[in-house]
Automatic annotation (TrEMBL), chain B:
Keywords: 2Fe-2S, Iron, Iron-sulfur, Metal-binding, Oxidoreductase
InterPro entries, A to Z: 2Fe-2S-bd (IPR002888), 2Fe-2S-bd_dom_sf (IPR036884), 2Fe-2S_ferredoxin-like_sf (IPR036010), 2Fe-2S_ferredoxin-type (IPR001041), 2Fe2S_fd_BS (IPR006058), Beta-grasp_dom_sf (IPR012675), Diverse_Oxidoreductases (IPR051452)
Protein name, entry field: (2Fe-2S)-binding protein
Higher taxonomy: Bacteria, Pseudomonadati, Bacteroidota, Cytophagia, Cytophagales
Ranges where the 2Fe-2S ferredoxin-type domain occurs: 2-78
Gene Ontology molecular function: 2 iron, 2 sulfur cluster binding; metal ion binding; oxidoreductase activity
Length: 694, 153
């Protein structure tokens, strides 16, 4: 398969040298996604924002599959925001595939039927006698064949069929194969693809000094900065100070000369305040439960054993490799927006509201994003660009430095969980209670998760502390930490009951199936499927020289079980290997899918080990990658990934691999050392002193 | 402001910039060579890696005044059409996810392989450890560096 990708990349290199209009001459549009030119170029628009989840390759694959197109003739183009043509142009909640699977298949399948109708008409035969293959319509009886390009103009005039039959999984030629990223050639040769690469005639570069959380400007002296060479203007707006100029470096230097003083504007919080507040919230008595089964109070009173554990997580930076940036050109006749946006429709709405401009007058071009992780669901940085362009009456690109990104940004909410389990004298799990609290976390729990249904007395609730510290979704919101906390706790319960954690989990999943308490909103068979698969692939418990930890998690419609494997080397635990078994329904792009799982695990491990943003009086202590540590190549374990062979419509894959990763590690760490990890980042834990992982 | 003649990708470029301007911003702002990326500005992430006389350096902390007559190679100059062994290996193994860090990864790899043509897995990890990939494509990067080593003539 590597050869296929190789060819593909060459094709794209060649395509770069050919002007777009030439190859697309006379192309006819079949639907929002698809057009075909008489010279047989199949252009497929990819409507969704690309952050590295590989949607720009996976979406067009689905259209091409049902079209029965030759992938070599497919040209993929990133669509701009277009609410007339598309809906849900969004990168959020691992939901794109689940939303668009049928729409994309239909786009390809209807066009294929129209091409067949056109051929039937031309050859004067019944379309039932025709087949398609690799971009051709065939009439096998007579040996006639025509490529799609030759039929396109005529086909586009055919009635659009309302009923289509989709291909069976066994007939897929593209879906499930490792198709290479359509932007590879551009990426490996350094072509401009990202928002930060946008340069326009007359464009001003802007950097912005933003206030610490919970403060406003008291006074600002901008004279020295304004006098610096290359500086066009210094603007104060909304408690921010923007320096605008012609070159990044001149703006950087001038900005250092700003003299801005701040004063409190409401609560000015520190991490110490959050620690205290979250502890109070965990202890608070009365809260409305989000799910309650049985009689929790009673069962905890009579239980033979009660286990109570707490887990805590700090704020995290999204740390996208490409810092926040956006280009805006506000003109009298309309607004041009270009840049990275996970929710472009929101961005446009927010800019429209800010400027008092009609939506229709705003265009938004989506650039490839150097990571998103939820940060780019906010439009704060794009609104800054629009506001400055409007004020300066010039095209403006706002750029955040890494320090801006880390200190003035949006964070994964800091969170705490308290779990309690009640066991009877035989080790049966009879009661479960958990509370989540967080700083601007919303509901930090997932009340219908396992052991809902399996444990008869069950209560989940959550409390949110409203804070001036801005937070936003961070890859697998809440679950990025809940997965660790919950899966670590379940391991402790199995240990307390003297049972193998996998055997114990399977037993309670069976219980939820046979005699459920309340509603069961996860698919027990899919969950068991991945657990049994990872048990088999990891050789669970067979190799006595290694220490294995297990976790299994359901999120974004998908099921993942993981096993981490630690070996003791010179008295140190070393994480050598991870196994992951995944059920995400039909795997669309095998190459991208493997990487989503591996990358998700690495992300989960790295942030659990090192990630932390702490605040002092509204100012983060971490500024850059020297103090905010990201996982590096030397620290990664080998990872084996196995997908369940499934015919279910695709479910999410951008996020689900992350939540269980840190728990698998922590549970293996317990097996190896007898010590438990409760607080992130792990490297700050007492039990990790002197430990070298990886 | 001062005038500098820079030799980049076998071409001469004249720029008039302040002498402490990091090469990164000369490439991006003045010359339109945007393949070299900004990630941290403090030589911690490797996204801005270029070659200076064949050695990998961090262009975000390299003042233009320190370059003199040394030859600069950026991702745009690694090859004309992506046929450098490192680029071929990156393409063949479908390495990039978001792709933002990959130019820096490839420049580090290319400089490393020019000095060590048959690296061990440990040597690859050591060489590449200074480049952050937030997506976590490290396995593929490691494989691609090893593959590129076999493609070099």
């Amino acid at each position: 398969m590597a050869g296929g990708g190789f060819l593909l990349s060459f094709r794209w290199t060649d395509a770069l040298t050919a002007p777009l209009t030439e190859s697309a001459a006379g192309e006819v549009s079949f639907n929002s996604y698809l057009s075909i030119s008489p010279d047989n170029v199949i252009t497929i628009l990819s409507p969704n924002p690309e952050v590295g989840q590989n949607i720009k390759t996976s979406f067009p694959m689905i259209v091409a599959e049902e079209l029965d197109a030759d992938w070599k003739n497919v040209k993929v183009v990133q669509a701009n925001l277009d609410t007339q043509k598309f809906n849900r142009q969004a990168t959020a909640g691992s939901g794109a595939m689940q939303h668009s699977w049928d729409r994309l298949r239909k786009a390809g399948a209807t066009a294929r039927l129209m091409l067949m109708e056109a051929a039937a008409k031309r050859w004067n035969v019944s379309s039932a006698t025709l087949t398609t293959e690799n971009g051709f319509v065939l009439h096998k009886e007579t040996g006639r064949k025509l490529n799609y390009g030759a039929l396109a103009t005529e086909a586009a005039t055919m009635a659009v069929p309302t009923e289509v039959k989709f291909k069976a999984k066994k007939d897929y030629k593209l879906i499930g194969k490792p198709i290479h990223n359509v932007d590879n050639a551009e990426m490996i040769t350094g072509k401009p693809l990202y928002g930060l690469d946008v340069y326009r005639e007359g464009m001003l570069l802007a950097m912005i000094e933003r206030p610490p959380f919970g403060t406003k400007i008291k006074s600002a002296d901008v004279t020295a900065a304004k006098a610096m060479p290359g500086i066009v203007d210094v603007v104060i707006f909304k408690d921010k100070v923007a320096v605008l100029g012609k070159s990044t470096w001149q703006v950087t230097k001038a900005r250092k000369l700003l003299k801005v003083e701040y004063e409190p504007d409401g609560a000015v919080e520190s991490t110490a305040d959050h620690d205290r507040l979250m502890k109070q919230l965990l202890d608070k008595a009365e809260v409305k439960p989000s799910r309650k089964d049985g009689d929790v109070e009673a069962v905890f009173k009579t239980a033979a054993k009660v286990i109570t554990r707490e887990y805590q997580a700090p704020f995290l930076s999204h740390a996208c490799m490409e810092p926040m940036n956006f280009f805006a050109h506000v003109r009298s006749d309309g607004v041009e927006l270009i840049g990275p946006a996970q929710l472009p429709e929101d961005t446009r709405k927010n800019v429209a509201k800010l400027l008092g401009v009609e939506l229709e007058k705003i265009t938004l071009e989506m650039t490839r994003m150097g990571g998103g992780f939820g940060r780019r669901q906010r439009s704060d940085y794009s609104m800054e660009a629009a506001e400055l362009s409007s004020l300066l009456k010039a095209p403006v690109k706002v750029m955040w430095t890494r320090e801006d990104d880390m200190r003035g940004g949006q964070y994964r909410p800091a969170m705490r969980y308290r779990f309690q389990a009640a066991l009877d004298a035989e080790g049966n799990w009879i009661g479960y209670r958990m509370r989540g609290v967080g700083v601007n976390s919303g509901n930090s729990t997932r009340p219908d998760h396992f052991p809902a249904g399996a444990v008869p007395n069950f209560l989940v609730d959550s409390i949110d502390h409203k804070s001036p510290v801005t937070t936003s979704p961070w890859r697998a919101p809440s679950e990025n930490f809940l997965g660790f906390a919950e899966q670590s706790f379940f391991d402790e319960i199995a240990t307390a009951a003297n049972r193998d954690p996998i055997e114990y989990r399977l037993a309670y999943l069976d219980k939820a199936k046979k005699s459920p308490t309340g509603a069961v909103k996860y698919d027990i068979d899919r969950m068991k499927g991945v657990i049994e698969l990872v048990e088999e692939k990891s050789g669970w418990g067979k190799n006595k020289k290694v220490f294995q930890g297990f976790s299994a998690y359901f999120s974004h419609g998908s099921y993942i079980a993981q096993v981490a494997e630690i070996e003791m080397q010179n008295g140190n635990p070393v994480l050598l290997k991870m196994y992951a078994a995944v059920d995400c329904g039909v795997v669309v792009n095998l190459s991208g899918a493997y990487q989503q799982v591996k990358g998700g695990i690495i992300d989960g491990l790295g942030h659990a080990l090192y990630g932390e943003v702490t605040l002092k009086d509204g100012v983060p202590d971490q500024k850059n990658f020297d103090t905010y540590r990201l996982i590096r190549m030397k620290e990664i374990p080998d990872i084996e990934v196995y997908f369940v062979d499934s015919a279910i419509n695709p479910t999410g894959l951008g996020e689900p691999a992350l939540p269980p990763a840190a728990a698998a590690l922590a549970n293996a760490f317990f097996k190896a050392t007898g010590k438990r990890l409760y607080n992130q980042p792990f490297m700050k834990e007492e039990v990790m002193k002197g430990v070298k992982l990886g | 402001m001062a005038n500098y003649t820079l030799q980049i990708n076998n071409k001469n470029y004249r720029v008039d910039v302040e002498e402490d301007t990091p090469l990164l911003w000369v490439l991006r702002d003045n010359l339109g060579l945007v393949g070299t990326k900004y990630g941290c500005g403090i030589a911690q992430c490797g996204a801005c890696t270029v070659h200076l006389n064949g050695t990998a350096v961090r262009s975000c902390v390299l003042p233009v005044s320190a370059i003199g007559t040394k030859k600069i190679t950026t991702i745009e100059g690694l090859s004309a059409h992506g046929e450098h062994p490192v680029q071929k290996a990156w393409s063949e193994l479908d390495v990039p996810q978001c792709g933002y860090c990959q130019a820096g990864q490839m420049m580090t790899a290319a400089a490393f392989l020019s000095k060590n043509s048959k690296p061990s897995s440990e040597q690859i990890e050591e060489a590449m450890n200074g480049n952050i990939c937030r997506c976590g494509t490290y396995h593929r990067i490691r494989e691609a560096v090893a593959l590129a080593a076999t493609k070099r003539k």
